[in-house]
Amino acid sequence: MTTHPTTTVTRSATYPQAVERLxxxxxASPDYQRTGVVTYTPIPSARGRWQAxxxxxxxxxxxxxxxxxxxxxxxxxxxxxxxxxxxxxxDHIAARSARRAGNARRExxxx
Length: 111
Fold this sequence. Notes:
Helix content is 46%, strand content 23%. It is elongated and about 60 Å long. By secondary structure, the chain is of the alpha+beta class. The protein is built from four helices and five strands; from the N terminus they run ααβββαββα. The longest helix has 24 residues, at 87-110.
């Protein structure tokens, strides 16, 4: 009997695009790079929307990231949320970055 080795490919989880943008925004934030946290405050004219610097997102985006243990959240009051990347969020960003670099390398090799 012939056996064939199998390869198991581990893919990182896929999250909604808004969650991916939230993770990217936190990681790229100068506040996060300096202090390890990003402070989101509510947008007065848009109920359920939060802003940190140029990035805005909704309650559901933050809640999805927290529920999937990608970020940790500290409620500093009704008008302030402090977010930080959890280990799963850091791992997810690293895996996406590696995948993007591999894709870019393959595209460059194909030219």
